[in-house]
Design brief:
Elements (H helix, E strand, L loop, with lengths): L1 H30 L28 E5 H9 L11 H12 L7 E7 L13 E5 L2 H11 L5 E4 L3 H9 L3 E3 L1 H6 L5
Parallel strand pairs: 1-2, 1-4, 2-3, 4-5
Length: 180
């Protein structure tokens, strides 16, 4: 008989603890202005919302020059001297032919400007002590919706995405450059 009484007392104690938790939760919700819980209604499926993309494409394209050369342009070719003028000129020539006529294109290379770097073309070459630092500084100066960064550098890409900039893979950018 004592075991039944012990069982009943345990059930009532457990029910009392549950009631305290429920009352405490309701009191907390009421204090936050939630009041009573809404009447139950069937759950509705809400499809994921796609982020809004700008109607117009980015007007400024910032290209991580040596990164694009190394990752996307040298496929299968010897990598000797890949940072030299002929390879830079090849990348700049491809960028000159980018399909968006109104786009502003900056191709940034690490290092000092070599004497043979002067050129005429649509793509503007820039030489900076740190291409990554130069690119991030330009990103901070502009409306992120109007900028696209071309790089395969994960850290640089993460910093740009954090600021709301579209990051484009080097091969995808080069695919949009018309080859003559």
């Amino acid at each position: 008989m004592e075991s039944i009484g012990s069982l009943v007392r345990g059930v009532f104690e457990a029910a009392g603890i549950v009631a305290l938790f429920v009352a405490g939760g309701l009191a907390y919700a009421a204090a936050l202005g939630g009041g009573a819980l809404p009447a139950a209604r069937p759950a509705l499926y809400h499809p994921p919302v796609e982020p809004e993309r700008p109607e117009i494409p980015p007007r400024v394209w910032l290209v991580d020059g040596y990164n694009v050369l190394n990752v996307a342009m040298l496929g299968g070719r010897a990598r000797e001297g890949w940072w030299t003028g002929p390879f830079r000129d090849e990348l700049l020539g491809r960028a000159d032919a980018f399909e968006e006529e109104a786009a502003e294109i900056w191709v940034v290379f690490d290092g000092a400007m070599p004497p043979d770097a002067e050129r005429v073309g649509r793509a503007r070459p820039v030489f900076a002590p740190s291409a990554d630092a130069w690119l991030l500084a330009r990103i901070r100066e502009r409306d992120p919706a109007q900028v696209a960064l071309v790089t395969a550098d994960r850290e640089l890409a993460a910093s740009a995405r954090h600021r709301g900039v579209e990051v484009v893979a080097p091969a995808a950018f080069l695919a949009r450059c018309r080859v003559s």
